[in-house]
Amino acid sequence: MLNVKSTTLLLMLFLLFSKEFYAQSSFVDHFSSLSIQVDTNTFNFEEDKINVQGIWKLPFEFRNTSPVALIKMTPTGDDPLNEIYELLPSRDYTMMDSLTLRVEGHYQCKIRFNNLLNDQFVGLKLRHKGAVLEIPFLPFTHTYATIYPGNTELYIGEEKKFELISDQIDNIVPHPLWVKKDNYEFRSYQSEGKIYVSILPTKSGQIEFELPVELYRPTIESNELTYQLPTQKFKFQVKGSRLKFLQFDDKQVIWEHGNKNGIELQIDSHRSLEMNKTYRVEDTDEKGGPLIAELFTVRRLSNDKVLCMFRPYNFHRISDGYLFIKDGDQAKFITNINILPEPEIKKVSILREGGTWINSRQIYPGETVEVRLEGEGLSRAKFRFEDLIDMSTDSILQNDVISHYLLKVPIDIRKKSINIFNGNSKTGITLDIQEYKKPRKLDFVIIEYGGIPVIASEVGQPILHNGTIGDVNLTFDAEHIDEAFKLYGKQYLELEVRIKDENNRLIEKQIIDDIVICPGSNSPRSFSYTSPDGCMNSEISINDYLSNKTHSLDNWSTVELILKHRKNVYGGRGYTERIEIIKERQVTFDVDLSIPAGLIIKKVGVPGFPGLSGISLSMLAQFSFYKKGEIQKLRPYKVGAGFLAKNAFNFNPDAERDLGIVILGSVYPTKKNRKFSFPLYAGMGYFLNEDKFFYLIGPGVRINF
Questions:
Q1: At 110, is the secondary structure helix, strand, or coil?
Q2: CATH 2.60.40 correct for 445-584
Q3: I need a surface site. Which of 19, 199, 526, 529 has the fewest CB within 10 A?
Q4: Which fold, 345-432?
Q5: What are phi and psi of 457, to 5 degrees?
Q6: What pairs with residue 211 in β-bridges?
Q7: 8 A C-beta contact, residue 463 and residue 580
């Protein structure tokens, strides 16, 4: 029986191995081999893989930051055609050749990495059976970096800077804060695209300077990752200065405009330093130098320091050289200190995924954006963004003039303005929360007209309505606009209504351009859709805007609705739907005058076969029939009743004339608006004079009124 300790140990081992298995099984189960070719080097997963925090990654070496890579992947299945993979776009790379299945049985694609030094996580994104599969890469490069001191003499209190020479300068991590050692202080910082190393000696004699170089992208030694170059050592001889160097307890002060009282500092004590005296601080030992600051000595302290008030009047950096403490124009001591401006944000830029940097402060709920602050003194600031989630990593660019941040905006954020704080103080710069104004497909608009209601985006052809067109109403399914993680915001619409008669002539036109539809209560932003421009989610009745009401329209009249997003709101983007509702008629009635000739008339009860009649005259009241589902398309037959004047135009004295009552069916050509046509008649009737029934068939000439 297992005791508690054994059970706990087994559980921990199970979790450890299951975690490792899970980390490997994401893409290894899909591909039996994976390789990447960069420049002339090829790296294979099976041979070169490296485990980083429980995740197996494929390493590859790069020389430039945006190399082209050829990637080959062989699926694990026997039939690659059953395993369909699609290469997805990403901020990490640009697709040059899409992912294709080769006859050799492997998938292949070509991409160009955008910037291997700036991207924190580099990998390939594939879509497989509706899911996203990620293949993690580990880019590395061999970096060389050193300084060339030249003159190895240094002076106490004098900052000496050296340019760091490297073949991969962008891969080096600067550390702008001073690091204290026994005999010196040092730091590294970036300026104008170069990296400098500054050394500030604190004691005389020989010092051995150790140069550490940290890397953004690692190098690989003996299959081990390292983000640090081997430490290099340089020897310097430190000499004392001509004047006594007095050191401040703080290496830098911030010059706050409007502070007339000065800043309390402690400086080294010296017997020649008088109390309650104001000294000039200049950047030259010559007479008449520009005033950098004033130093007023207050009192000596027990720690062999002097408390003083320091009042800056100009900016100064230690790297610019010594500062001279003067009594009048005579230099008494030397010192050095950074006098720096307050951190100030001068410009804010936004980068969205797949986009470019824009000068803007507008952000949207639910999105993740990169924010770039530009100004001065930014490396000394501790910026934070009110109510936003800071997802920034240590590798994101931060220096004195630029600070980058990766920020996530909560989807349910209620504030309209986000303050940027420096510590606990407001900077006066804000980010503005904007509601989305994205046009959504018009599948949330429903058209009611007296028939079966239709969705605006699904109407592909004219709607033929048999009977009176009732009130035409637009209703809106507000719950269908915003989704849980995909927001569109208010929908600003415009409706154009056109009324046309049966001949397609425009008889009325109305435009409704103030339609604003707000997402429903299911939207995570529903609380914010209350603004002066309002919402009109209730139905819109077209008849409220028309003089020619829809229920009074004649047959084959058309109600045309053109629904679209407002161009002035969406910058010309958006959707447009055209809906036509036509009052259909299945039967029509008209009176025809026809001149039949050559009719074959067979009288009932009279033997024999008759000859052809002469020119007759008929007047018929006829019913015409329309084809169902087609607009004003007549069927080629008619049925009617009327009178037939037999041989009405036969002036032969022996001609048989008579007037008959007839019921006829006729076949007509169906071309619209023909005044003359040549129908074929068939039917029966009754001659009034002869008192006989008869049958007839034959052609005629028709005149349409």
A1: strand
A2: yes
A3: 19
A4: Immunoglobulin-like (2.60.40)
A5: -75, -5
A6: 232
A7: yes
